[in-house]
Fold:
Amino acid sequence: PPADPARASRLPPHEPCRIAEPTAMQVARAKLRGSRIIAIGTSVVRALEAAANPDGSVRAGNGIATGRIVRGTLLRVVDAILTGVHQPGESHFELLRAFADDALLAKASAAFTAYRYRTHEFGDSMLLNRQPLLLSREQNRAEVLETKPLLEAWL
Structure:
């Protein structure tokens, strides 16, 4: 059943996560190349963003993702998400609002209904690319290049 939106807005779920050292290194290498980071599922988005450093790299180790990712959340690591189909009002849908505006999500939702896609973890998935909020791709690349010497120290 859909999540209770009122409860979800009051109590962000605490989600244990672990970023393995090889994963942190691969994220750093991908960022240096200007490659995209594609998370597989909402839990991976939460884990990577919880472990994010200001430069877009991630810290390896164990942690707990406690924050909510919603519309307006600045995503430092993840550029796209491969996720199940989520409906408005579900907590997972709120996370998708950090990737796309309401108009795009409404259009996608209408298409899911029209084509009878199965929602949540019942089988169908979509790839959702992050829409730029604050910085252009060139500005993002410039920020990464400025941190390149720092990142190369642990590659």
In short: The CA atoms of residues 119 and 152 lie 41 Å apart. Strands lie at 15-19, 38-40, 61-65, 80-85, 120-129. The chain has a mean pLDDT of 79.
